[in-house]
């Protein structure tokens, strides 16, 4: 069965006919992103405007639209990581990327962010790049991670 047929079936079986999140998550998990074509398809099938579906994608950070994806670099700033030097790692990230927290690099590749905890306090400082968490990160390690 092709993706559009599967999506159509999911939409038909939705308990809450206005809940496009379930549909978009299915597309994301299947394709890795949500194409403009699928946004239009979902909007048509759910009797919504394209921009409504696009706004849902923008609202949920785990959903990715079509096109160049921004790599999120998150530095833990909670107490345990801070005590282990996450402040120095954050300063290095700002220097390497040339941005402040919550800014996107000029090339549109990275967004620097902070997060209060990754649940790995004994292994800090912790840094999350995309979906991967790195432990005991130093400024030098961060520089190597961002070279990839």
Provide a descriptive summary of the structure in words.
- There is one protein chain.
- The protein is elongated, with a radius of gyration of 19 Å.
- It has helices at 3-12, 20-31, 36-45, 50-59, 79-83, 86-97, 139-147; strands at 71-76, 110-115, 127-129, 132-134.
- A hairpin with a 2-residue loop joins β3 and β4 (132-134).
- Strands 2-1-3-4 form a 4-stranded mixed beta sheet, with helices on one face.
- It starts with a helix and ends with a helix.
- It has 2 domains: 3-59, no CATH class; 71-147, Glutaredoxin, CATH 3.40.30.10.
- α1 runs parallel beside α3 (36-45), α3 packs across α4 (50-59) and α6 (86-97) runs parallel beside α7.
- The protein contains 7 helices and 4 strands.
- Helices cover 46% and strands 12% of the residues.
- The protein is α+β, with helices and mostly antiparallel strands.
Tell me the count of domains.
Answer: 2
Overall CATH class of the largest domain: Alpha Beta
CATH architecture of the largest domain: 3-Layer(aba) Sandwich
What is the structural class? alpha+beta
Whole-Å distance between the termini? 37 Å
Global morphology: elongated
Low-confidence parts: none
Count of helical segments? Answer: 7
According to CATH, what is the topology of the largest domain? Answer: Glutaredoxin
- The helix-strand sequence is HHHHEHHEEEH
Helix residue percentage: 40-55%
The amount of beta strand, in percent, is 5-15%
- Walk across the major sheet and give the strand order: 2-1-3-4
> Total strand count, please?
4
The CATH homologous superfamily of the largest domain is termed Glutaredoxin
Average pLDDT confidence is 91
Tell me the Rg in angstroms.
19 Å
